[in-house]
Design a protein that fits this description.
- The chain is α/β, with parallel strands linked by helices.
- The chain has two domains: about 90 residues, no CATH class; about 140 residues, no CATH class.
- About 35% of the residues lie in helices and about 20% in strands.
- The protein has nine helices and six strands, in the order ααααααββββααβαβ.
- β3 and β4 form a beta hairpin.
- α3 crosses α4 and α8 runs parallel beside α9.
Length: about 250
């Protein structure tokens, strides 16, 4: 798959991201990103290499993926600056949710038991694996409808699972709500001021004070479903009923 057959805008974006890496790995980044675009079925690194026709150099390609993971913040800022002229909407719409994925093996770190979001025919309620909090920009595609463009993902590790991490790779425990607030603050520095309106669509598990209060203080509009234990109230009356005594309800 020749890299020169891509549209000029895509080629310029891929080439602008390469300088953030070492020269030894930067040359493989545009080709690997092209594989991300044309990969089919499951979106794994193996499918990326297959779409990019990377065969003998599959190990250096995996090294490039690891190098990109350490420079995601800088690359996301660069990509946002390049595509900014194409963004016509005055509203920035984000989606934040956690996604559990099954993981197995003796060397899998940070894995634990999580609620299964998509139970199979057996109706299993839990799965063992990783749970990542993902921040994505929501856009409207002419043919596919609403699509999510991931911007950042962080691994959510339960407190009981954090104790089993190796001493050289320990990390402080943070809840999913705290991770979501940190992701929103990360975006505030890198592109929030480019839009007049800022909306966030989140799952009902994030409709809680630790996430809603900072979002309201920052001027965000949060769209979510009601929690199962939500206390529903109506607006207080503005007119006094005939014969009613005492102060008006608040």
């Amino acid at each position: 798959m020749p890299f020169g057959n891509l549209p000029p805008l895509v080629s310029s974006v891929f080439s602008s991201l390469a300088p953030w890496l070492d020269k030894r790995t930067a040359a493989r980044l545009p080709l690997l990103l092209s594989g991300v675009l044309f990969a089919r079925n499951t979106r794994t690194v193996t499918s990326w290499r297959r779409a990019a026709e990377i065969t003998d150099e599959f190990r250096p390609a995996s090294t490039t993926v690891c190098a990109v993971g350490r420079r995601t913040n800088s690359m996301a800022t660069t990509a946002l600056d390049l595509v900014q002229p194409l963004v016509k909407s005055k509203r920035l719409t984000l989606g934040i949710d956690d996604t559990p994925t099954a993981r197995y093996g003796p060397f899998v770190e940070g894995a634990g038991i999580h609620h299964h979001p998509r139970p199979g025919p057996a109706g299993e309620k839990y799965l063992y694996g990783h749970n990542g909090v993902v921040l994505a920009a929501l856009a409207k595609h002419d043919d596919r409808g609403a699509i999510a463009l991931p911007l950042q993902a962080q691994l959510s590790i339960r407190a009981v699972d954090s104790e089993g991490l190796p001493p050289e790779r320990t990390r402080p425990f943070r809840t999913r709500l705290e991770l979501a607030v940190a992701q929103r603050d990360w975006l505030k520095v890198r592109g929030e001021k480019r839009f007049e309106e800022r909306w966030a669509a989140v799952d009902g598990g994030y409709a809680k004070r630790p996430f809603l209060r900072p979002a309201r203080a920052a001027g965000w509009v949060v769209v979510s479903r009601l929690r199962k234990d939500a206390h529903l109230c109506d607006l207080p009356p503005t007119e006094r009923r005939l014969g009613q005594r005492g102060p008006m309800p608040t």
